[in-house]
Amino acid sequence: MADGPNPHPGPEAGLRPQLSARQMAMLAVGGSIGTGLLLGAGAAVQIAGPAVIVSYLIAALLAWIVTNALGEMASVHPAAGSFGVYADLYLHPWAGFVVRYAYWFSVSIAVAAEMVAAATYVHFWFPRVPGTLLVVLFAAALLYLNLRAVGQYAEAEYWFAMVKVVTILAFIVIGTSLLLGGRVAPQYTGAGGFLPNGPGSPMLAVSFALFSFLGIEFVAISSAEARSPSDIPRATRLAFALLAFIYVGATAVLVGVMPWNRAGVTQSPFVTVFQVVGLPAASSLMNLVVLTAALSGANANLYAGARMLFSLARAGYAPRAAGKLNASGSPAAALAASAGWTAVAVALEHYAPESAFVYILGASLFGGMLAWCMALAAHVRFRRALSPAQVAALPMRMPGGSLLSAAGLAGIVACVVSMGWSPQSRITVETGGPLLLLLTLGYVLLRRRRITIGP
Fold first, then answer.
1. Separation CA 325–CA 398 (nearest Å)
2. At the N or C end, where does the chain have fewer CB atoms within 10 A?
3. In this model, does residue 25 exceed pLDDT 50?
């Protein structure tokens, strides 16, 4: 394992190249698979019914386009700022600033949400322990992990994420055997048929399915710390293959083993399936799994948030301290600032009106979609800047090139716009405009001071 500084020159130099392909892939898986899937069906199932399988297939296709576009650019420009750096290089400095700050906000809020959820799961066994104390303990533990050498951190996250991957794979295998063996009557056409809410419902649910794949971009974020350039394409393909199989497979089993209108309303479908096969203490086991899943998600998102803030600092758009590395090669100040959002989220959840916290979560989701859109727009310009010979020499090539990226961009924009017609997701669209305006004002104010606040 290499211990020296990253050999790639540039503003983000100094990070340690210690991550293997499997570690990078599981970092993305850990950041993508949150507790929502493990707790039961989400809003997508309620909108589309059994046809949510189609929604996830469409979302997987769009995520595949984003994954390949980012993987191609990361193989040429390994950078912790990832799509933010690419937007800066190929679109405009404003784009690089806005998308990095929006994404940092997005993943930092995700850290907070997962740690608050983790405290709730601990109450299953220890109901009298104060939730705030648990969140503080979790934050301290995750900061300790993230402040260590990135190779050691990634190995811990690898096994964290493996717990939920194995659980979901077991769910898929057991659920499929129950359906094929006749122990559970298939529910694909029950409770109103395959399309209970109309033929257009799968398209309306795509945006929710897309959110499930957020985190796939972690491979590109970790590319600056890849052990070797060849690990980046391998990690990209492995992360997508795992997530696509997990999401499409788990969704197909979920709406098969229980009526779609009960998903997310009664107990977790994971508990249901494990109880059917006679697994003892299914509820306790699944509580342990979702606790591990929450901590894994928080751990991965904290890594991504810290690297994004580190990238902003090295670009001159965040305080100088956030761009400094400790002896282990970790951005300590950026980690502390990213974890600090947990205190804000906990305070808002307890003392602010419920609507305020909902708006913050909506803006967080918008930040993730903005990152994907900027990544695809940057890839279109990236490809146009290359000659045919340069394209042929790319370490990783995206099928379809800039045309497929443009089509993917149009598809994601259409999904985001469609969210304005859904009561469950309208808040995400409504918060997007104010967030962009606020960040644009920040860009205008900071660009003149950029040289004075950089490292």
1. 33
2. N
3. yes
Phi, psi of 19 (to 5 degrees): -90, 130
Q: Which residues of 95-125 are buried (b: 16+ CB within 10 A; e: fewer)?
A: bbbbbbbbbbbbbbbbbbbbbbbbbbbbeee
122-143 average pLDDT score: 89
Task: State the pLDDT confidence band at 232, using cuts at 50, 70 and 90.
Answer: very high
For residues 254 and 104, which has the higher predicted lDDT (pLDDT)? 104
DSSP letter string over 362-423?
HHHHHHHHHHHHHHHHHHHHHHHTS-HHHHHT-SS--TTHHHHHHHHHHHHHHHHHHGGG-T
Buried b (16+ CB within 10 A) or exposed e, 353-385: eeeebebbbbbbbbbbbbbbbbbbbbbbebbee
Domains and CATH numbers, the chain: 21-447 (1.20.1740.10)
Q: Which of 97, 300, 137, 329 is nearest to 215 (CA)?
A: 300
pLDDT digits (tens, 9 = 90+) for 272-299: 667 666 777 777 887 888 888 889 999 9
User: What is the pTM assigned to this prediction?
Assistant: 0.90
Q: How many helices (H) and strands (E) does the chain have?
A: 20, 0
Two structure tokens written together for 316:
């001159």
- 149 is written with which tokens? 């050498």
Whole-angstrom Cα distance, residue 383 to residue 398?
10
Q: What angle do CA 404, 408, 411 make, to 5 degrees?
A: 140
